[in-house]
Amino acid sequence: MQVFDRRAVRLHRDRAARMVDRVADVLQDAADRLLDRLDDTNRRFSEALDVGGRGIVAPLLRARGLRVVSTDISPAMAARNGGLAVAADEEFLPFAPGSFDLIVASLSLHWINDLPGALIQLRHTLRPGGLLLASLPALGTLSELRGALTEAEAEVSGGAAPRVSPFPELRDCAHLLQRAGFTLPVADVEDIRLLYADPLAILTDLRAAGETNAIRERSQSNASRSLFPAALLRLPADGNRVAATLRLAVMTGWAPEVVKT
Predict the structure, then answer these.
(1) Total structural domains in the chain?
(2) Are 38 and 133 a contacting pair, CB within 8 Å?
(3) Could you tell me the CA-to-CA distances from 99 to 19, 187, 188, 190 in Å, in that order?
(4) What is residue 244's three-state secondary structure?
(5) 193 assigned to some structural domain
(6) What is the DSSP letter of 256?
(7) Which residues fall within 8 angstroms of residue 97, CB to CB, at 6 or more apart?
(8) How many Cβ atoms from other residues are within 10 Å of residue 41's Cβ?
(9) What's the CATH number where 222 sits?
(10) Over the stretch 205-248, which tens digit does the pLDDT of each residue have?
(11) Which helix (H) or strand (E) covers residue 242, if one does?
(12) Residue 259 included in any domain
């Protein structure tokens, strides 16, 4: 099933490469929460693959003494990582089996059509006993914006087009890891709540992160000029600010060890 337009994903990332520094603090917070899991294991890693880290994850891994290869569907975004970087589609990874002992995918797998297949590729890319750390937006992410857009579009045009990506439920995430052949799969959730003085900045930040709508069935016509202002007025207030929630599904899974007989 082709839910997402992968060409649009790449174009959005290409455009975002010029302005992603605007959301560096949010991306850094998400990456730090993911990499904290490394402190919970005694295993030591040496060769890491950074998938879609947008120039944030690779330096954090290098600071831990790891050799890092980065990959991104966007050549422009891949170039932001420094060091060795490869422009490649996450659905067709170009790495040999057993190339890495650690893979980190921070907020980079949620625009993939075949997520189970991509996870299988990631497992094959790991050495036996290697670790996958991944985070992706879970159900509840941008719930405020989704609800506001749906209400506003129903009022403005009498219907609603899909404008916010579908997100998985947390209970599905560990199952996806298990289905892909990872051992000891774990998925838990962390919420990052963002407050904005200017509601329009939510949309600007999504564009800067490369997270604008890439659903294949998205409306190809321009939205009514009044839609987004009407939606932003419906966002829930927290004092004199409006809120946006990023619900992170944090996933860990291990490549199976080779059993000697």
Answers:
(1) 1
(2) yes
(3) 32, 24, 27, 30
(4) strand
(5) yes
(6) P
(7) 124, 125
(8) 11
(9) 3.40.50.150
(10) 999 999 998 888 765 555 566 777 888 888 888 888 998 999 99
(11) strand 241-254
(12) no
